[in-house]
Specification:
Layout: E1 34-35, E2 42-43
Antiparallel strand pairs: 1-2
Length: 84
């Protein structure tokens, strides 16, 4: 179910529209998302997301983390659009 729309065995196309803002303060990110050495050790992005960058694509061999059901507090500066 997607809202009140049920998707069955027929073909469906969904279009999502959004907006981005550069300079979100992501930097190299808080997560270990790419190998940083020849042994494949997981680490942060090797270069930070730039102040004028809206997105970054890359392929990674680092597996996703094991899921946890604990809440994690948000720390540090938030994007200005997220502030009350």
């Amino acid at each position: 179910m997607l809202g009140d729309l049920e998707i069955g065995s027929e073909a469906v196309t969904l279009q999502l529209t959004g907006a981005t803002r550069s300079g979100g303060g992501w930097g190299a990110g808080p997560y270990d998302v790419m190998p940083i050495d020849a042994a494949g050790t997981a680490g942060p992005m090797l270069t930070p997301v730039g102040a004028n960058c809206h997105r970054r694509y890359f392929l990674t061999s680092v597996p996703p983390p094991e899921p946890v059901c604990d809440y994690v507090p948000v720390e540090g500066d938030l994007c200005p659009a997220s502030r009350p």
